[in-house]
Amino acid sequence: MTATEPAPTGGTLAGLGRFCFRRRRLVLLIWIVGVIAVAFAGFGYGAAPDNDFSGGDSQSAKAQQLMEKHFPKEQGDRLTLAIKARTRSLPAARTR
């Protein structure tokens, strides 16, 4: 620090900011190493993926099992689509 340069002011965060600015490359390297370490720790020690979408012991799962058992042709997802016409005649619907 020279005599013409003002003395550093501020608190802890100002000091941290000055440190990060003066040592930009070191801070960037620390961030990269930290992100890689967190990624490896997350993949290495993380819980196994659970891709079981059966519903477990819920009421909806039991209902789905009953549907599959008693109505095998009705299995799968269904979609009811209601269309409101602006006019009374629908030529495209009549051709079906």
Description:
The chain has 96 residues and is mainly α. It has a domain at 12-45. The protein is built from four helices and no strands. The protein has helices at 12-22, 24-45, 59-70, 91-95. The longest helix is centred in the middle third of the chain and has 22 residues, at 24-45. The N and C termini lie far apart (87 Å).
**Residue runs with pLDDT of under 50 for 5 or more positions:** none
Mean pLDDT: 81
| Sheet with most strands | none
**Structural class of the helix and strand makeup?**
mainly alpha
Strand content: under 5%
Query: What's the helix count?
Result: 4
The radius of gyration over CA amounts to 33 Å
Helix content: 40-55%
- Overall outline: elongated
Count the strands?
Answer: 0
Which helices and strands occur, and which strands form pairs?
Layout: H1 12-22, H2 24-45, H3 59-70, H4 91-95
Short description:
The chain is mainly α.
Keywords:
single chain, mainly alpha, 4 helices
